[in-house]
């Protein structure tokens, strides 16, 4: 089926550079662009060199302001398709017909760092989707956390100033571990629930393709009868939710600052299209006050156990942009880009966003005509009397006012029976006051809900993250005040953090919340479909490797969708044990264990005869071990691996493949088994992603 957005992009593509010679911006052919026009060979450059001046001026003006938050991102095109009609709840055109695919553009981002910062920082990730629907653009501008740090948008500049690099020295880049953020947090307990998410592994996603997305606010669906239903939006990744480990994330910042963007780009290029399911939590308006929190409070979730998430459609990203600046940088999202059938609520954070996003595009994109930029253009027709301004790219004709008779009254207004956006007729009355509703007062129950819903290893990572972050805070009183706040969430948490950062343990609070855990919040219950699709597996080879077994295991894993790379001490080929050659994908020194999800040691793979090379390979394995990654070993490599492991794990088995509970799969291939028998067990360990119950490495 034709994709209207891609057809539209075709119309806006620049002239094919192969269609003729180079020209100036005025279309004048150019035959020399390497030397400026000078008075004599060693003389000054002449003002009349219009080609030089145009080229330099255009270069001088290439930059636009980066986004004030979410500056660093990566985007892709794709489509959304509903599973069924949602007419019962909403009249949104793109949620009616399961045979209709609506084009989308999605931009993922970090929040704190500038455009050139690293991907794998501890931070919230933006997950913004523009649906090019037949009734206009709908933007779902969400994050990978379901909650936000503040309740009212008027606090956004304070929060962002606190988390951004400190004003005197512009440090730290892409990090929240500094005094001003924690000063703010310790004084502003409404941040605590989202801070718990930020200290969890959710804040260091393995891949943009492996994180959930959330609309955060409660929105409103409106059906054709004008009836409203509260709705929360959830994106669930088909591959499950997976994260990095903090130590690994930090190393990846140096090894590959583009870790997440490269992953998105490469998998789309390879045809392994990322996919999410869109789910909704629906709450009838009559139940608005049935919760022990306020639906308008963006620091709260509705636990999935209380209101289940109903899947309503799926999104597939299948096309990389042609030009980063034109598309990913210039895409302009706006929470107020809604379509008939989707409306707002009075969430004060959402109300503020509805002002901010248009305002910010005016400065960032230099004027009011940014909706004409190809990535922002609706595929629905645009007709109105908005005119002129910077960067006007359209030639409007006819009357530019309403009502008019000279232009035939055009464009006519939609008839009452035609589709048009009609604001939900919510009844509103009240006094003008600056006051937070008492229903927004409880800041601790859901922070505790998150904490108590975590598996042991998740809690351990959260404590370590608090210790790291607060350990970087210079002001001891800020550390102590934050721990004090944590004591209202959970005493054990506060004590564990205090111990690591050298502040006194806070006293126990009599009534810390004890909410019923929500299993849906744990990574343990978001593992996806158990596939190993797109997991990156490193196979360490060297001269003397058993090529047949290596190829067998590589092919079996590739067949299951994994991306398997053969790494050797140097690029090119290695000699098989029988003298034939095996092609290598990369040289070990150009990569690192942190760039892979698992490591495999085929028979003879660690016998290069070069002690330094073998040592580098073993360091790779040890790093994978420390980061909980699955490790497989075959044949003689089993003993080499065993030598590296803690004593209690050294008893690698003979015979059939064994999955140790700690994600180490070994097979000596001594009882007639083949490498292929082993791959099932190894794939299972890879699907589990990380294995936390490992004893520490010796040495
Ligand atoms: Fe944003 N936010 N935000 N935000 N936000 C921006 O808009 C703002 C909030 C989110 O890939 C800015 O175009 C205010 C919540 C994403 O282009 C700006 C408030 C959520 C993106 C802005 C919030 C988000 C932005 C900066 C509090 C999750 C990146 C550049 C009232 C639901 C979009 C821009 C992209 C970007 C303002 C809070 C998500 C300044 C005032 C809550 C994913 O307009």
Automatic annotation (TrEMBL):
What this protein catalyses is: 2 H2O2 = O2 + 2 H2O
Bias regions of kind Basic and acidic residues — which residues?
1-16
Superkingdom as given in the UniProt entry: Bacteria
CDD domains (UniProt xref):
GATase1_catalase
Task: List keywords of the entry alphabetically.
Answer: Heme, Hydrogen peroxide, Iron, Metal-binding, Oxidoreductase, Peroxidase
The segment annotated Disordered runs over: 1-44, 504-527
Q: Which Pfam families match?
A: Catalase, Catalase-rel, Catalase_C
Q: Which cofactor does it need?
A: heme
Its Enzyme Commission number(s) read 1.11.1.6
Which positions fall inside the Catalase core domain? 23-410
This chain's function reads:
Decomposes hydrogen peroxide into water and oxygen; serves to protect cells from the toxic effects of hydrogen peroxide.
Which PANTHER family does this chain map to? CATALASE (PTHR42821), CATALASE-B (PTHR42821:SF1)
**Membership in a protein family:** Belongs to the catalase family. HPII subfamily.
Q: This protein is called what?
A: Catalase
Source organism per entry reads Streptomyces chrestomyceticus
């Amino acid at each position: 089926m034709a994709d209207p957005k891609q057809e539209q992009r075709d119309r806006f593509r620049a002239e094919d550079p192969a269609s003729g010679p180079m020209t100036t911006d005025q279309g004048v052919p150019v035959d020399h662009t390497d030397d400026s026009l000078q008075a004599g060979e060693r003389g000054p450059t002449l003002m009349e060199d219009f080609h030089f001046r145009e080229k330099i001026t255009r270069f001088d003006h290439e930059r636009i302001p980066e986004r004030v938050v979410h500056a660093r991102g990566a985007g892709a095109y794709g489509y959304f398709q509903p599973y069924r009609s949602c007419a019962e709840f909403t009249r949104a055109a793109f949620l009616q017909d399961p045979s209709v695919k609506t084009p989308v553009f999605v931009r993922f981002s970090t929040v704190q760092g500038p455009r050139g910062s690293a991907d794998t920082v501890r931070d919230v990730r933006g997950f913004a989707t523009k649906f090019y629907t037949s009734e206009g653009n709908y933007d779902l501008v969400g994050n990978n956390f379901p909650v936000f740090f503040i309740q009212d948008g008027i606090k956004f500049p304070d929060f962002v100033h606190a988390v951004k690099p400190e004003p005197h020295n512009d440090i730290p880049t892409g990090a929240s571990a500094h005094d001003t953020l924690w000063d703010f947090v310790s004084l502003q307990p409404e941040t605590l629930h989202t801070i718990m998410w930020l200290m969890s592994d959710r804040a260091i996603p393995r891949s943009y393709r492996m994180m959930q997305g959330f609309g955060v606010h409660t929105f409103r669906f409106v059906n054709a009868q004008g009836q409203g239903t509260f709705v929360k939006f959830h994106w669930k990744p088909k591959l499950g939710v997976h994260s990095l480990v903090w130590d690994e994330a930090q190393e990846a910042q140096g090894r590959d600052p583009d870790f997440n963007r490269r992953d998105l780009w490469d998998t789309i290029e390879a045809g392994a299209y990322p996919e999410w399911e869109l789910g909704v939590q629906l709450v009838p308006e009559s139940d608005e006050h049935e919760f022990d929190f306020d639906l308008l409070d963006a620091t709260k979730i509705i636990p999935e156990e209380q209101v289940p998430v109903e899947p309503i459609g799926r999104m597939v990203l299948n096309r990389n942009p042609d030009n980063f600046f034109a598309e990913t940088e210039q895409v302009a999202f706006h929470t107020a880009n809604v379509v008939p059938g989707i409306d707002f609520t009075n969430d004060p954070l959402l109300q503020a966003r509805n002002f901010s996003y248009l305002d910010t595009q005016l400065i960032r994109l230099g004027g009011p005509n940014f909706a004409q930029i190809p990535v922002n253009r609706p595929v629905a027709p645009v007709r109105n009397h908005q005119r002129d301004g910077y960067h006007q790219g359209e030639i409007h004709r006819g009357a530019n006012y309403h009502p008019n008779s000279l232009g035939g009254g055009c464009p006519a207004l939609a008839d009452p029976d035609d589709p048009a956006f009609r604001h939900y007729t919510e009844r509103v009355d009240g006094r003008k006051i600056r006051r937070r509703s008492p229903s927004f007062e409880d800041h601790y129950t859901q922070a505790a809900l998150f904490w108590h819903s975590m598996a042991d290893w998740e809690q351990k990572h959260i404590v370590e993250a608090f210790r790291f972050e607060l350990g970087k805070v210079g002001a001891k009183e800020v550390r102590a005040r934050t721990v004090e706040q944590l004591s209202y969430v959970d005493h054990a948490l506060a004590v564990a953090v205090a111990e690591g950062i050298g502040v006194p343990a806070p006293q126990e609070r009599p009534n810390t919340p004890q909410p019923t855990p929500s299993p849906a919040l744990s990574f343990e219950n978001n593992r996806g479909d158990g596939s190993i699709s797109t997991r990156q597996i490193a196979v360490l080879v060297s001269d003397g490797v058993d090529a047949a077994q290596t190829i067998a295991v590589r092919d079996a894993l590739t067949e299951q969708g994994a991306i398997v790379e053969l790494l050797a001490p140097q690029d090119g080929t290695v000699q098989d044990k029988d003298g034939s050659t095996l092609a290598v994908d990369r040289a070990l020194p150009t990569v690192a264990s942190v760039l892979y999800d698992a490591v495999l040691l085929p028979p003879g793979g660690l016998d290069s005869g070069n002690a330094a090379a073998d040592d580098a390979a073993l360091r790779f394995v040890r790093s994978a071990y420390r980061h909980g990654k699955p490790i497989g070993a075959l044949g003689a490599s089993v003993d080499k691996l065993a030598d590296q492991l803690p004593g209690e794990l050294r008893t690698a088995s003979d015979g059939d493949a064994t999955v140790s509970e700690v994600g180490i799969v070994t097979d000596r291939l001594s009882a007639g088994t083949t490498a292929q028998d082993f791959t099932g067990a190894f794939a299972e360990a890879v699907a589990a992603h990380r294995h936390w119950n490992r004893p520490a490495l010796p040495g």
